[in-house]
Amino acid sequence: MNAKDIVFLFAICAGCDAQYSASSMSPKTSRFSSNSEAETIGIVQVHEDTLDWDEADSIAFGWWEDEWYTTIDSQTVPLVLLPTLTYDNWKNHLIRRRDSLKTRYELAGSDSGRMAVLKEAEKCLLNNLVNGIIPHWYGTPWEFNGHTDVPGEGEIACGYFVSTTLLHAGFNLNRYKLAQQSAYNEIKTLQTTGSVHKLINKDVDELVELAQSSLKEGLYVIGLDFHVGYLLKWKEEVYFVHSNYWYPSQVIVEYAKTSVALMGSASYYIGEVTTNKALLKKWLFNTRISIVMD
What we know:
Layout: E1 5-13, E2 40-47, H1 56-59, E3 62-64, E4 72-73, H2 87-107, H3 111-133, H4 158-168, H5 175-179, H6 183-190, E5 197-200, H7 204-214, E6 218-223, E7 228-234, E8 237-243, E9 251-255, H8 260-263, E10 267-272, H9 277-284
Antiparallel strand pairs: 1-2, 1-3, 2-4, 5-10, 6-7, 6-10, 7-8, 8-9
């Protein structure tokens, strides 16, 4: 064979480079360390002459010179991909910010004042979830029945990833009951007012087009035929953040337009999280969220 580059997806890559042989890489790539070498989430390129073809199917999947995936690089995307504060510190910090915002909301003397506080709460929740809580989960292994509440320890299913991160961000909900519902019921639970965005018999390109044209910048819950995760619109780009049942079977962030999980679904249901004023009020006041179970 002629030497060609083969592109393999390693959705969480901590300081990997093209000098590693594919046969030496574990199918479950390691979580990010805190060192400066952990720079890239996305793809790793290896050369044909370093690949053990007998082990290729158990290592990864790839295509000849066909870039299905675009590298997500921590130096080029406006997202925090590595944990900074400890997980408990992030949770405590966010709860303190929430309680402070609640006090300001109660003291606001006008509707415009309360709306201003809600707008600040929206930004606070978005930033702390995306750049504080969620980065700790990247690399946590997926498992169909996984329900760990400690990032990086044990396994986490897709529904539990959503319900657990929402609980740890300060939403008053039963993470077990929420995770055990259909993706559509999870979204109806959170979409307390307004309608759920529905795309039936559509493809991922149409999903991204809808997000680009119609969704505000923020974090959403998206339900697929048999999967659930977060859809993130951030700085005009659309990302999918989820506990991925597809290789490499772990919590990842990826571009929505190249997500295999999104490509494999014919239906999409989108519910608001950070742009949902009714839900933001429940978050501010620690109001119990009733789980839709019909």
